[in-house]
Amino acid sequence: MSNAKTIVKNTSILIFGEVLSRILSFFLIIFIARHLGEIGLGKYSFVFAFVGIFSILSEFGTSVYMTRELSKDTSLAEEYLGKIFVFKLAVSAVAASLPVIIIIFTNQTSEIKIGILLAAMAMFMYYIAFPFRAVVNAFETQGYQSLYVVTERIIAFVFGIFVLYKGYGLLALLIVLVLSNASSWFILYRLVSKNIVRLKIKVDFAFIKSFLKKSFPFWFTSVFITIYFKIGTVMLSFLKGYAATGWYNASYKIIDALSVIPVMVITAVFPAMSKFYKKNDNLLQMLYEKSFYYLALLALPLGVGATLLADRIILFTYKQSFINSVIVLQILIWALVLIFVNYLMGYLLNSIEKQKLFTYTTGISAVLNIILNFVLIPLYSFIGAAIATVATELFNFIMLYYFTSKSGYCINLFRTMYKPLVATVLMGIFLIYLSKLHLLLLVPLNITFYFLILFLIGGIREDDKRLLLSFIGVK
């Protein structure tokens, strides 16, 4: 089933669901920023970052490992789902309780403490859905995944906008998010139980012990990734206050919205990469090279475009009080460029059963990120946090490229990148030349120009054109 057309189809389904979800999320963030200001956005970002650090205790790598194993043998789905779900309930309850207990002993306001409680409840509902999402990915029924994320975002968006418009504030918004996560979990549960495999609760300590031994490397990777994506926001809040946190996160939310692109691609190709390993190495190599090329092809113009248009993007999206977010966006966008290919290289290591190398890389990167934040945030505030993020991703890229190359999957960076680089440079010149145009006209014009140049210089090849045309039914 995991042929090229299936991967493109699954990616398209994910694009529809995830893009719609991210659009709704981003507009909700804009509404939060405009109604609650930089301090309100800072508080919102802090409660979820603080709770998010403890979310590492909700996962233990079970979802990634479960997806990989079920991709190889779907007959194990009932056993895995029943046993892993029980485990997930227990560890998610612990993970949700810890931040609530710890925040009590700080000097945070009652609003923040209640906010932490509500964010923890939302996190609990989010993480108990992971075993069902693993089943959906393994069975390559990404439509259910899209329905799950879109449902949650629609509920959050509609009722979130309502409570903010009515002036009910941050805590009312967090209550809405608890309810949206609970509702979407129930829908996913019903879809999986009715159409794929029924949930049959099973307690099996021996199974969990054995499963955790194999999934731990995936968990350590997620631990380190969570730390270095959340620690900057938490440290900014404690060291520099909620206004600095709001300025940083105004740009970070743009980066987060765009990061859906590599996440979607990797979600679609990871089961296929796992199947191709040891069965057809040539197909795995081809899939990896094509994925790397097209992720880089998308990342480079994003980096240049956002750097040149950062001031207009921030002022158009938020308002004048977020002007300090401009330089943050100009820095953070290059972390996103690296994230596009870093995700792919990391999951390639996961698929070829060298997940420990991914773990080592992210572990060292997490330590580096913490050190850089401790040094740079006191000196440069939110700008220091942005620099720390980019430096971490650059180090991560170097390490992952080394490990994937040593594992036999070397990418010739110059040969792979020179056509997208040429098109990106020309796009940048075109953008500067037309810079007086309105942003809503300038962006689509530059996207069109970029892909036109790629077509003209052979950056999008005939076999890829045929694949895309065959997917939409054109012979």
Summarize it.
By secondary structure, the protein is mostly helical.
Please describe what this structure looks like.
The chain has 475 residues and is mainly alpha-helical. 85% of the residues lie in helices and 0% in strands. The chain is built from 16 helices and no strands. It is globular and about 65 Å long. The two termini are 21 Å apart. Residues 467-475 have low confidence and may be disordered.
Summary keywords:
475 residues; mainly alpha; 16 helices; disordered C terminus
Count helical runs.
16
* Low confidence ranges: 467-475
Helical content class: over 70%
H-E order:
HHHHHHHHHHHHHHHH
Number of strands: 0
Please state the structural category: mainly alpha
Overall 3D geometry? globular
Q: What radius of gyration results from the CA coordinates?
A: 22 Å
Ends apart, CA distance between termini: 21 Å
The major sheet is characterized as: none
What is the strand content? under 5%
The pLDDT mean sits at: 85
